[in-house]
Amino acid sequence: MSVELPLWRALTGYRVLTLVYTLCLVALSYRKYEHPLVAVGYMGALTVWMALTWRRTTSPERCTRHFLIADLGFAVGGILLTLLVDSRARIMDGAPTLPSIWAAGAVLGFAIKGGWRWAAVASSAVAVANLVVRQELARDTIHNVVLVWVASVAIGYVVEVARASERTLARALQIEAATRERERLARDIHDSVLQVLAMVQRRGAAIGGEAAELGRMAGEQEVALRTLVAGGLVPPARPGTARPVPHEADGDGEARSVPYDEGAAGRAAASGSVPSAAAGEPCDVRALLAPHAGAGVTFSEPGAPVVLPAAAAAELAAAVSAALDNVRVHAGAGAHAWILVEDEPHAVIVTVRDDGPGIPEGRLADAEREGRLGVALSIRGRLRDLGGSAEWVSVPGQGAEVELTVPKGAAPEGGKRGKATA
C-alpha cells in the first residue's frame, strides 16, 4: 500500500541515469576544461559515492538525514568546483556545471523524505551555489533555479498529501474491521445470551417468588447487554465463534419471552452436524437445512449436492434459522413456511417464504434504527460478511419472503463485500 516506494525507486533510477549523462558531458568537454584532471577526479569520486550509496534511495528507512546532507554536499561542492575547472567564458556562455542535472536528485531525495519544507531548503542551497558560479542573474540561470525549486517543493507537497491519505485509509480499514468484528459478536450474543436471558425472565415471572426476582434481574441485564451491543462498545470477538444456542426472536430483532423450543436447527447444532466457522472443507447446504422440514415447513432442494465452504454454509443455515424463528413468532403457530434451495452457477440462493400477515411497510428500517438485532445482524449481517445479500419482499396480508444469496467460495470475513437490501 506504500505510496512512497515507487517514488524511491524512481529516484534511484534518476540518480543512476543522470550520473551516466553527466559522465558523458564531462567526457565530451574534457579538452575544453582549464583543469580537466580536477573534473576527472570529481567525477571519479562521484561515481564511487554512487556505487557505495545507490541502495540508500531505494527505501525511506535506508535514506537517512545524514546521507541526504552528504549527498547534497557532493552536489553543491561539484557546482562550486566548476569555478576552478572551467573557464570564465564557458561558464558565462551557459556551460553545465560538473554535476549538471545529477544535483537535482539530491534535492528530490529531501523532497520525498521530508516533504516540501526540506525540499525548499535543499533547492535553495543548490540555487545559491548556481548563482555564485554564474555571478550574475542571467535568464537561463534564473530559469533553472526556479524550475528546480518549484518542482522539488511540489513533489514534497504531493508526498505529504499522499502520506496523510495513506494514514487515513489505514485508519478507515481498521475501523471497518473492528466494526465487522463487533457485528459478528453482536450476532453471537443475540443468538445465545440474549435469548437465554429472555427465557429466564419469562420463566421466573411464571414461577414467582425468588425466581421472579431472578427473572427481573435477568430482564435488566438483557436490556443493558442489548444497549451495549447496539452501541458498538463490545470488544472484538475471535474469528469463528460458534453459535451454540438456538433462539427465538421476533422479526424486528427484539428478543421475545416465548417458550424455548430446541427446533430442528438446534438439534442439528447440538448433534455437531453444523460445521464450525473454522472448518474449511466443502459442505452440502441441504444437509444443514433439511432438519427444518416438518409439518409446518416444506423443504425443496435440488437433486444434486449444493456445496459451499463449511463456514459459509454454517452462516447461511443460521440465517435461515433466524428467518424461520421470525415466521413462528409473527405468523403464528398455524402458519406454514417454505424453504427453497437454488444452486446457481455463481451463487447459492435460499428463499424462505411464509403465508402469515406479512411485514408492515417500514418496520424493518424502524427496528434497525432502534438498535434491534434480529434482522439487522442475525440475517443481514451474516449475509453481508459472506459477500452476499438478504432481500425482503412482503405484502400485508399475503405473507413475507426473504431471499438469501451467498456467492460460491464465500467465507466469513473473506471475499468481497456485498450489499444487503431490505
UniProtKB/TrEMBL annotation:
The chain crosses the membrane at residues 12-30, 36-54, 66-85, 145-164. Residues 1-170 form the DUF5931 domain. Residues 245-255 have a biased composition (Basic and acidic residues). Keywords: Kinase, Membrane, Transferase, Transmembrane, Transmembrane helix, Two-component regulatory system. Residues 315-408 form the Histidine kinase/HSP90-like ATPase domain. It comes from the Bacteria. Residues 235-276 are annotated as: Disordered. The lineage of its organism: Bacteria, Bacillati, Actinomycetota, Actinomycetes, Kitasatosporales. Pfam families: DUF5931, HATPase_c, HisKA_3. It comes from Streptomyces sirii. Residues 181-221 form the Signal transduction histidine kinase subgroup 3 dimerisation and phosphoacceptor domain. Residues 263-276 have a biased composition (Low complexity). This is DUF5931 domain-containing protein.
